[in-house]
Q: What sequence folds into this?
């Protein structure tokens, strides 16, 4: 199916720019909510705010599909709930009232409970602890109650880009630190290039996998040690490793030890089968481009 009339939020962000470009290439007409940041070219702008009911109605009027990318990742509990939950639910209700055929909601892989897992399916136990993830899971559940089979949920892992982005900025800082070596620190790290995310969103917007929930991740997760080496070598940085026991030592931040020692990878088999998802981005090449471009 082509030529859909799509309502899009989050178009000015890292993921939104890739998604909007992919939707336009597929021949869809895209109306995007514009708040402060300028929109990419080729989009119809619907000026408004995510928390405003009138803005919702203007955005979804005469549309076929809603693609909801917009969210905030930091802030108080109240701020996260207001944008990621309250505004999301209100927008979905406006879409339902306007008769849209479906909603594609971009959630997060952070909704799962703490702990180690490999190739987890979409039925893995949820139980987030961080406020952002809590707000995303609550929104998923509320939208499912309201939209039923008209809702498709995508749960991407950490997003990267062939240029400056938050994850690669973090790697730049990480390789300056002493790093934990836990049995070689060969822990796989799930990453997803925004171009691969965009291809999945296009498929879901067109009706593939309608009503389902799908993980999105790269085809082959790089290891923690690999990511450190890929980042350090072009910059001439000698990595400093310290052998560590399987239990987290006090001298390392908890997040750093977990990245080096606790695998949390997701299966993308369902997305491959239902969406035709076929992630092809070269993550090492993307990191190289980011390093050459400099920090964001």
A:
């Amino acid at each position: 199916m082509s030529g859909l009339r799509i309502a899009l939020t989050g178009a000015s962000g890292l993921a939104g720019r890739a998604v909007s470009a992919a939707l336009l290439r597929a021949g869809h007409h895209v109306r995007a909510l514009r708040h402060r940041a300028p929109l990419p070219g080729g989009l119809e702008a619907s000026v408004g705010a995510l928390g405003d009911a009138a803005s919702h109605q203007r955005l979804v009027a005469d549309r076929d599909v809603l693609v909801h990318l917009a969210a905030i990742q930091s802030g108080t509990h109240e701020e996260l709930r207001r944008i990621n939950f309250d505004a999301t639910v209100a927008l979905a209700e406006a879409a339902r009232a306007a008769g849209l055929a479906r909603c594609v909601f971009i959630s997060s892989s952070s909704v799962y409970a703490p702990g180690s897992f490999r190739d987890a399916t979409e039925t893995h136990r949820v139980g987030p602890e961080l406020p952002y993830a809590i707000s995303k899971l609550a929104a998923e559940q509320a939208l499912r109650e309201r939209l039923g089979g008209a809702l498709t949920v995508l749960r991407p892992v950490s997003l990267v880009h062939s240029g400056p982005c938050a994850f690669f900025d973090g790697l730049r800082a990480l390789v300056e630190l002493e790093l934990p070596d836990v049995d070689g620190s060969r822990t796989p790290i799930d990453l997803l290039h925004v171009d691969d995310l965009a291809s999945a969103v296009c498929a879901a917007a067109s009706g593939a996998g309608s009503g389902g929930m799908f993980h999105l991740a790269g085809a082959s997760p790089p290891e923690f040690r690999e990511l450190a080496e890929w980042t350090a070598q072009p910059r001439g940085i000698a990595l400093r490793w310290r052998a560590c026991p399987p239990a987290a030592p006090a001298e390392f931040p908890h997040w750093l030890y977990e990245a080096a020692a606790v695998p949390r990878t997701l299966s993308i088999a369902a997305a491959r089968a239902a969406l035709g998802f076929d992630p092809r981005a070269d993550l090492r090449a993307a990191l190289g481009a980011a390093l050459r471009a400099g920090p964001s």
Remarks:
- Residues 77-97 form the longest helix (21 residues).
- The mean pLDDT is 95.
- Residues 251 and 272 are 41 Å apart (CA to CA).
